[in-house]
Amino acid sequence: MKRGILTAAAGVAASALVLSACTPPGDGGNGGNGGDGGNGGGGEVSVMWNQPFYSMNNNTSATNNVTNANVVYMMNEAFKYYDENLELQDNTSFGTVEQVSEDPLKVKYTYSDNAKWSDGTPVDAADLVLAWAARSGNFNTTEDAERDDEGVVEDAGGDVFFDAAEPGLALIKDFPEISEDGKEITFEYTKPFADWETNLTIGDSGVPAHIVAKNALDTGDAEEGKKAILDAVENEDKEKLAKVAEFWNTGYNMTSMPEDEDLLIGTGPMKMTDFKEGQYLTLEARDDYEGDRKPQLSKITVRYNEDPMAAVQALENGEVQLINPQSTADVLQAVEAIDGVENNTADGATYEHVDLTFDNNGPFDPASYGGDEEKAKQVREAFLQSIPRGKIVNDIVKPLNDQAQIRNSFTQVPGSPDYDTIVQGSGIEDTYGEGDAEKAKQMLEEAGVDEAPKVRLLYAKGNARREQEFQLIKESAEKAGFEVIDNSSETWSEDLGNGEYDASLFGWQSTSTAVTESDANFRTGGQNNFGGFANDEVDKLYDELQTETDPARQAEILGEVEKILVDEGFGLTLFQFPEVVAYSDQLQNVKPMTVSPTMFWNFWEWQM
């Protein structure tokens, strides 16, 4: 099966979505001593999250996950960031971005003198050029590569294969203009791009070119490494780029403190000093950080635990000071019963959905019916019709938010200006409503399949809410004539796109407000298109959306995309995540935000 190109989990890229296991949890106990850290304003905080960190490069299709994005964000700078009001803020102590030409579109990135990697190496053109080359997909010489069971690239057969491809960056074809000091980089787009301001500007600094070169090309000092990267990209040196891509794809993956601490080099105010597999990760303030986001705390420890009630218990016991557990009625009730705790409960930016797999010889793949696309579509539609969306919302979500409703859009949040228009145009509500097992049974009979289709449903193992959703889906779908197999996995996010499941249940969380954010989810070969969906008309619509600046036409385009998704049985949206952020009243300046990096966005302002 072809695994998609990208972040997002959307890499957690601009104009992308990131995978969300739900939200955070934690593990009790002491965090360990760690290495030498810097000095913030004083104080230490422990946070609980529900999935362990596993990569310093969160821009590949296998690592595009909010759990990575949060940590990478605290260890790195970026040109811009979102505040709690979703307003894009400039981080001028790191650099600036400006449009210097409208036709053709040219964008200049300028790094400040304070922009340095934590080993003292200046951030410059080599780093930005590497980020563009890797994440654009323009230098790949093969469409995909061999992957392991978790979706990580194992072997590209000597070809160039960066495991990423952001549509916006793909519009930059030519090597950029670079100033003599390497601090100013100007990219020219082949056509207008509505979301240029979030291209290469939010989330992180990428990975350091000189460290990638040292590992991939066996270079010496930083200057030699930077030059090697620039030369390889400018000359399209396939032999060297293949080696660079191999390291970029996998070299930053880790489950504990790496032996090579160069892999932890970042540009931000925090550095990793301890990482115990599956338990906790410790960040400490850097003494030598020169930017504006100097942290008030000296240490932030992120603890890991899938169990939301364990997170609540740890908060009550004072083992952690901040949690964002998967919300259930029991969790909310338990949080509200704790003295000395502030609680913020609201709908978040993550939405729950079911996606189907089109290209794995499974029940939704035309290949299973001798290439009969209509029969495969009928089976897809019957399964989606069987999903009891109304019962899922009533039983699981409304106990947390009595105003909760089914989400009926793949691209719009309920209540947003274009939501009602797009929903009406797509027909999703009329087509699937709250779910109807009897209607689904009739549809399956009309499809004329010989035996009950076996549907392997992938979701996060140990995730209480997803387990509840799975049981409701299984009960309803089996009434309709399907056999639903529990394919839950602790490595669900890495498993996405491996072809060993037929439907997936997870959440997407936004990383930006870009209008093209959903592109990678539905475009043919898109990085977040894990189910192999392919539709030429959808691709053309996203091509148009990239250059469209009229908000009214943008909404029309997204509406047309959504109608095709409904008509083709792509998948089904379920609900907007209700989120609970709870924290000690001794912890100040926590301001939850609805896009990644969520509550971590202003970590430098936290105080104890």
UniProtKB/TrEMBL annotation:
Signal sequence range: 1-21
InterPro entries for the chain: Peptide/Ni-bd, SBP_5, SBP_5_dom
Organism superkingdom: Bacteria
Gene Ontology MF, one: peptide transmembrane transporter activity
Entry keyword annotation includes Signal: yes
GO terms for cellular component: ATP-binding cassette (ABC) transporter complex; periplasmic space
Record's keyword terms, sorted: Signal
Statement: the UniProt record of this protein carries the keyword Disulfide bond: no
Domain Solute-binding protein family: 99-516
GO BP term, pick one: peptide transport
Stated name of the protein: ABC transporter family substrate-binding protein
Organism: Brevibacterium luteolum
